[in-house]
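Severity: low
Component: inverse-folding endpoint
Summary: output formatting inconsistent between runs
Steps to reproduce: submit the following structure tokens with default settings.
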């Protein structure tokens, strides 16, 4: 069983930065695909960034150039560095993981989810 625990959320002003972390425990392997999703009130959960086992990354157009996903396999920790934050980035952020993820931005592809961490960006 895989457990994911996010941290690092908070409240910042527009233009600020935050770094989210996702600590993984249980039977998680470096071969897993891991992703960050977010969900704003009244909206569907959407993919933000994903990282494959080989280190290749994918970003949503809305965060390209501002967010960076990375992982530390030795620490079993996933990160999301968020710079130049905008009010529209306000949402609950979730990390997700699974062994085989053909479509890394599709919610149904992941069986393992964290509980989320809130990010609020004020203008």
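Observed output (run 2 of 3):
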């Amino acid at each position: 069983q895989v457990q994911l625990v996010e941290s690092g959320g908070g409240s910042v002003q527009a233009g600020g930065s935050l770094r989210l972390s996702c600590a993984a425990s249980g039977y998680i392997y470096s071969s897993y695909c891991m992703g960050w999703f977010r969900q704003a009130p009244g909206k569907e959960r959407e993919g933000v960034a994903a990282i494959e086992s080989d280190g290749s990354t994918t970003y949503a157009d809305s965060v390209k150039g501002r967010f960076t996903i990375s992982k530390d396999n030795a620490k079993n920790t996933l990160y999301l560095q968020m710079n130049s934050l905008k009010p529209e980035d306000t949402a609950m952020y979730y990390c997700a993981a699974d062994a085989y993820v053909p479509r890394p931005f599709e919610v149904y592809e992941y069986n393992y989810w964290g509980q989320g961490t809130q990010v609020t960006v004020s203008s």
